[in-house]
């Protein structure tokens, strides 16, 4: 089938799409990565109200099949495509962003994209930590926790910003979950990601007054300085105030951005670059320079590799969105895989850097790249199921256009499997329910126990079965850990 461009507001002539109809296949394939797997739900329900969601859940119960939910399809493993199940597509469900000046809260639906939330915030001069990439949907982002803007000090978006959710549970009831209503559901929904057992139809989140975004950048040629550069860049994060800063590191071939290349091969003489995008949110340039000043003195041996440097300058969120569109594009049928770990905080930095080196430096194609975010998320398991410490989010994004998908994606899975001994777990947004080998734990063991109890109460018939994968991953990691300590 020929490639059709990802459409964030796709419309269909019917509410229920059945196999073999052209609209069914267009909808099934409407994902930001063109690598749509060969899994075919029995029906796709294009829902536009909580009642439609309840109808879809009833239909799944009648048929005795499982349910998958898709808000934007950015989880590239596309676990939402359940063979013979029901896919609930939320594209048109509460597709708005409202701001209430009395409560100073936003209210929005699950398929609302980052750039739609951002545009509303610009209009009302407020801030809320949405994600960094323009087309990511609210649903999966917030269920996973949400490494939103300036996450370091303000926590994951679901921890400190989300006040309420509207959720359709498997028996079709529409419930409000918050810190005072259906508190077990609210706990379970914030951090379980694709393991969640209901359909979120609306979110409410608090906001603060807007300030100004600033960015300072460095680009180094990696040469033989991988260890030195990584250590310097990550340690300087420790010297940078947590509140109002957003520190990101990338490793890539500059040829990634050169459209004159027609193949995915890494060009013969290509040299890896390491980029730093250091962002902060403050009212004045002077404050911004202070916030990012830990990076002022680049050591002499690293200066030799420094290719470009830009001083602190004003940015708009749309500037960053445009950069991200280049970083993971979906213009020409590109296919993508994301693998990641969250580092185990007790592992010394040099051992971490050494262990992850193959995943960082052995990129499989010209368009692949590494993305590391200094997140500093400290979980509070008593408050939310988000329960794995997230100091560094370390990921590799593998991209390809040609037929070599399985070879390059498996090669990267092998590298991430070998990084598991230095991981505290996997950010649940990147958890792959279809290939377990590179998955770390998406939740702590104690959070998972509590989650399983709540889940059994709401979903006794297993309409949402991904939790079984979480249990299998926990057992796998515990077996590996026990072996290692024998
Ligand atoms: C380019 C790119 C940039 C990213 N940037 C960030 C970032 O800055 N910060 C960050 O934290 N993450 C980021 N992510 C990860 C992203 O948050 C996850 O992929 C997330 O799962 C996407 O959610 P979605 O709803 O858009 O995607 P989907 O693939 O539609 O959803 C993922 C899963 O979430 C569940 N789900 C989705 N909607 C609902 C719903 N309404 N009710 C119940 N379950 C639902 C389903 O199980 C689904 O399989 C990024 C990913 C990409 C590809």
Automatic annotation (TrEMBL):
Pfam families: FAD_binding_4. The keyword Flavoprotein applies. Its cofactor is FAD. Residues 37-210 form the FAD-binding PCMH-type domain. Keywords: FAD, Flavoprotein, Oxidoreductase. GO terms for molecular function: FAD binding; oxidoreductase activity. Belongs to the oxygen-dependent FAD-linked oxidoreductase family. This is Oxidoreductase, FAD-binding protein. It comes from Periconia macrospinosa.
